[in-house]
Every structure is written in C-alpha cells, then in structure tokens.
Amino acid sequence: MNFDENKTIVVIGAGPVGISAAAHLISRGLTPIVLEKGISVGAAISQWGHVKLFSPWNYIVDTQVRVLLQKTDWQEPDKKGLPTGQEIVDQYLIPASLTPQLYQAISYEKEVIAVSKQGHAKSSSNGRNGVEYTVHIRSTDGTVEIIKAAAVIDASGTWSNPNPIGLDGLPVSGERENQDAIVYGIPYALGKDKADYAGNRVLVLGGGHSAINVALDLLKLQRSHSDTKVIWGLRTNKLEKLLGGGINDELPARGDLGIAAKKAIDAGLLDVHAPFEVKRITKVTTGLSIEAITDNGQTTFEVDRIIVTTGFRPDLNMLRELRLELDSIVEAPKVLAPLIDPNLHSCGSVPPHGFRELSHPDENFYIVGMKAYGRAPTFLMLTGYEQVRSVAAQLAGDHESANRVELILPKTGVCSTNKSNSGSGCCEIEPEEINSSCCIPKVPMPAALPLVDKAESACCVTKSTPIPSKTSCCG
Ligand SMILES: Cc1cc2nc3c(=O)[nH]c(=O)nc-3n(C[C@H](O)[C@H](O)[C@H](O)COP(=O)(O)OP(=O)(O)OC[C@H]3O[C@@H](n4cnc5c(N)ncnc54)[C@H](O)[C@@H]3O)c2cc1C
C-alpha cells in the first residue's frame, strides 16, 4: 500500500527517533501526527539530561532533521563535541520541534495507551488487513480520544519501563515496599539529587555503561563528602567485558568510561562485586538491610539507597491487540533479535536493517528506535535513524530506497559471541583477542541486507575486510 498525504501516519513518541521518523515522512510528502506523552520533545532524555553521551554530535543529528533545521537560523553544534542529554534536547530536539514542518505535526501531553485495528480484536481475521488502526490517546485530564491511522510507527522508547532488581526479571522481596529508597535509571548525584546520596551508603546495581556513569559520579561526590560509600553489584560476572573496550572503542568517550571505572576498581575506590544477586531488601531503623549472594558467598549488609541500572524492557501492553512477531527472548522483531541478543554476542551493534526486519503480521505497523531493540541494551540513535529512513521510504512507496539499508556504526572494541552457545558460529575468541574483529552470530541473514555478504556475515570478519567496514557489525 502506498500512502498519500491524506492518510494519517501516527508516530508514537517525540524522542530523537520519533522526530527523525516525522522528518523523513515529511520529506516524502506524507503527513505524520506525532503523539508525545511528555510536555516537550525529548521528554525521556531530559530525565537523564545530566549524562554526557559517548556519541559525538555527528552521530546524533539525523540527516532529514538537519535539512529542516538548516532552513532556520539553527547553528549546528561542533560535530566532534560530546553533548549531554539535555544539550541534545535544548540544541537539537527543541529547535527541530519549532521548525514549521514539525511544529504542526507534534501534540504534547498525549499518551498512547493502546493501538488496535478498527473493529478487529487480535483474534479477528476477516477483513483485518483492509481496516485502519485505532490509536487510543489519553490526555493529562484523563480523557481518552481515539483517532484512526493508516500506519503507526511506535518510537516510544523503553525509558519508562526499567527492569526490576530480581535476576528472574521480577522485583525481589522488599523491592516494591521500599520504593522510597530505590531509584531506577541515572539520578543526578552531583546535581539536583545530591542530597539523596551525599554522605550515604549507596548500592549501585547493573552491569552497563549507565552503571559505570552512576558509580563514577558517586566517587566524585565522595571527594567532597568522604563518608559517601559506594557498593557496585553486577548481576553477572561480566566485568571484564564491560570494561574491556577501552582504547579500542571507536567512541572514545565510551571506552574512557570503562578505563576510568577500571582505574577506580584497581585503586580500591569502588567496592565491586560480580556476580551479585539481591535476595531480600528489608527496612531497618538505620537503613535498608540487603541479603545477597555475592562473590563472597551469602552476605548481609546495610545501605541507605539503591540505584538500579539493570536495563529496560518495552511496554507491550499498549500493543496487545496487534499481531506482532516478536522474539521470545529479547522482545525485538523476530528477524532483528538474533543480531542484537546479548546472549549471543556483545558486539553492540547490528548489520544495517530497515522496514523488512521491523515488519509484523499487521502491515504498516513498525516498532522503531530504542523500543525496536526490546530488552537488548546496545541501541544507538544512528541505528534508529536508518530504521525510520527505510520505513518512511516504504510507506511512501519508494521500495528501492526502503530496501537499500546502509549504516556505518562505530565499533566498541569488544565483540564476542557466547562460547557456550555452539550455534553462534565461529567467533569463539576471548574479547581481548578480537578487538579488531566483528562478529555476527550465525543466524540466517534476512534477505534485506544487500550490503552484507551472507557467507561472511554468519562468521567472524576482520577490520580489513571491506564489507564490514561499511556494514559495521561491531558497534
Ligand atoms: C543514559 C543513556 C545514554 C545513552 N547514550 C547514547 C549515546 O551516547 N549514543 C547513542 O546513540 N545512544 C545513546 N543512548 C541510547 C538511545 O539512543 C537513547 O536512549 C535515545 O534517546 C533513544 O531514542 P528513542 O527516540 O528511541 O527513545 P526515547 O528517547 O526514549 O524517546 C521516546 C519518547 O516517547 C515518549 N513516550 C513514551 N511512551 C509514550 C506513550 N505511550 N505515548 C506517547 N509518548 C510516549 C517519551 O516521553 C519519549 O519522549 C543512551 C541511552 C541512555 C539511557
């Protein structure tokens, strides 16, 4: 189906990928309606606005959004500079949202609570493909309106759905009851949230770059408030992998994070435990008592606050009446999932992918951006921009452009597949040995990856191999 400008295309979420989707649709003469639950564009990013990104500006500004901005007096930030989250909002997303084309497309304080097919519950097949989507929208006053859409692009991210503490994916005993002392995400320990952490005993849980960010901020706080105590618990024992990218990371700021954390650990400044499994949290008069199994065996200790940075998961409730084809492990579109599943590899990026890999049984519905990666942790904005470029081309009927997916991503410097997973192919090398390599797990490659040689892409390929330098499989 081709779309004309009279057909409504709903974009859910005005984060960087939703804004990019809108710009690409507009560039093709289509008319998006962007529904954002926050009061501004980049509402999710603003919640981690103090965090410095590891991607420089040239990986953050989307090409079609730039086209719109260049028609205004917008000054493009230094392409090599590293913005904070809030700078992305202030210097890129807000100016973009004020361009005439996007200004009229975005509605704020409109939360999408459900998407369905008109007159068709999930189980209803007859005539399903011919009907429009219904998008149920809640305003801040609680009223719900329903609009129809010929296509829906869900770019709502995952920030609102953090993973709980339990290794089984559920809250541990005492987690729900002690929410007043538990924060999910990346609090601003050196700024507005300082009073919560200065001089307190803080348990940081998580094994990604966000956890490093939090732990390093708390160490800085310790310099001015020496009684601040930091315990960092990684739920698995993958510390080396996390810190290992270092100088080989093509995003130097991301590598620097690992290097700084390693220095702090070596200097004995960070009390790190890996693995670390919280079993129970109990409120006591002097704080929170934590029962855990750590590398030292069963332990009980006390903290004042817990910061949980254990990743995010997609909100699939609002999509319950749609026919989606999602992977049962990472909850990403089925074809994409094996390429980003952290159980299979740690490359941090994927071969370029577009509308084909993002398609579902219900046509013209796409999950894009951070949410497209489901529970997988390694999403980069650039990946999302290429996704929506391809999706917009497809909706506009430009199938050649939609199929021609291309993306160059920086490498992490750490890239491995899971040795224990024999099905993952030939990349069975320790991370340190494969700093210059890319690996993609041995999975059937989708037909729509024309730039990837299928024989090579199922195996390890080196930096010198010309195809991966273009398709960039280690982000
Ligand atoms: C701390 C941190 C650092 C990161 N650093 C980098 C980096 O350096 N480089 C990089 O490339 N990527 C980075 N990422 C990953 C990723 O690129 C960002 O998370 C990015 O913001 C994802 O964009 P998005 O548009 O998909 O989702 P989001 O930015 O999360 O935007 C989603 C939008 O949808 C809105 N929304 C949510 N639910 C609804 C609903 N039901 N109805 C209406 N609106 C809704 C939200 O309010 C939000 O505005 C980082 C992520 C985090 C958390």
Describe the structure.
The chain has 475 residues and is α/β, with parallel strands linked by helices. The protein is 25% helix and 19% strand. It has 15 helices and 18 strands. It is globular. Mean pLDDT is 83; it is low at 413-475. The structure holds flavin-adenine dinucleotide. The site of flavin-adenine dinucleotide has 37 residues, from helix 1, helix 2, strand 4 and helix 12.
Summarize the structure.
With 475 residues, this protein is of the alpha/beta class.
CATH topology heading of the largest domain: FAD/NAD(P)-binding domain
- Tell me the fraction of residues in β-strands, as a range: 15-25%
Q: Termini, distance in Å? A: 34 Å
Based on CA atoms alone, the radius of gyration comes out at 22 Å
CATH class type of the largest domain:
Alpha Beta
| Strand neighbour order, sheet with most strands | 3-2-1-7-16
Which structural category fits the helices and strands? alpha/beta
Poorly predicted spans: 413-475
The CATH architecture designation of the largest domain is 3-Layer(bba) Sandwich
Helical content (DSSP H or I, runs of 4+): 25-40%
Q: Are any ligands bound, and if so which?
A: flavin-adenine dinucleotide
Shape: globular
Mean pLDDT: 83
For this entry, give a set of tags:
alpha/beta, FAD/NAD(P)-binding domain, 2 domains, five-stranded parallel beta sheet, 19% strand, globular, binds flavin-adenine dinucleotide
Secondary-structure blueprint:
Blueprint: E1 8-12, H1 16-27, E2 31-35, H2 43-47, H3 63-69, H4 85-97, H5 100-103, E3 106-107, E4 110-117, E5 133-139, E6 144-149, E7 151-154, E8 182-184, H6 194-197, E9 201-205, H7 209-224, E10 229-233, H8 239-243, H9 252-266, E11 271-273, E12 276-284, E13 287-294, E14 297-303, E15 305-308, H10 337-340, H11 355-358, E16 365-367, H12 381-395, H13 399-403, E17 437-439, H14 454-457, E18 460-462, H15 466-471
Parallel strand pairs: 1-2, 1-7, 2-3, 7-16, 8-15, 9-10, 9-15, 10-11
Antiparallel strand pairs: 4-5, 5-6, 12-13, 13-14, 17-18
Bound molecules: flavin-adenine dinucleotide (FAD).
